[in-house]
Write a structure and sequence with these properties.
The chain is mainly alpha-helical.
Length: 232
Amino acid sequence: MKIRKLLDSFNYAIEGLVYSVRTQRNMRIHMAATMIILLACFGFNISKVEILIVTITITMVVLAEMVNTAIECALDATTNYYHPLVKIAKNVSAGAVLITALNAVVVGYVVFWDKFSPLTFTLLKKVRNSNPYMIFFILIVVSIATLVVKAIFGEGTPLKGGMPSGHSAIAFSISTAIALITVEPVIIVLSFILALIVAQSRVDSEVHSVLEVIFGALFGSFLTIFIYKLFT
């Protein structure tokens, strides 16, 4: 009987994790990032201490997101009207997730920067010697990939709204391509400023949320770098 109760406890815990992944967009993003980071740990020479730090950091982010989901569900179940304290509770729990996510970015930078820097410099050298017309090919690929991701999330329309922001993805894809091709720092800074203005305009017009814009920017930038690495 005790064994049965123990198994039920594990089943309930797993159901909670599955529910979070199935219903929470941020949790799906965290899980995708977790898989990428864990694969990177196997692909690079990571020490035991670094693996431990990365594992604890990932656990903190996932735990914070699950606690945030639990708080939101509990408040929604007990309060069916607007209350300022409920809003504060949800904002504070979301802020806790943001802090753990920012900490994860810092940890990832410290752990993986030395591993990625030689690859990055090699990539920059190859890109600057490549065909500049590749940028048009990249824009086509980024546009198609953005439409596919929007279809997967099933939100908004192909040209307006939804995850991710297509305008942000294309704007940051262009600025990333410019940064890879040119050696002029002024041009690079201006291109990213213009991309930020495009992203901000989508938030100000209430077409996209801040998360959709950030995801679009990261999606466009990383996909551009990946294509350059693949074909140069």
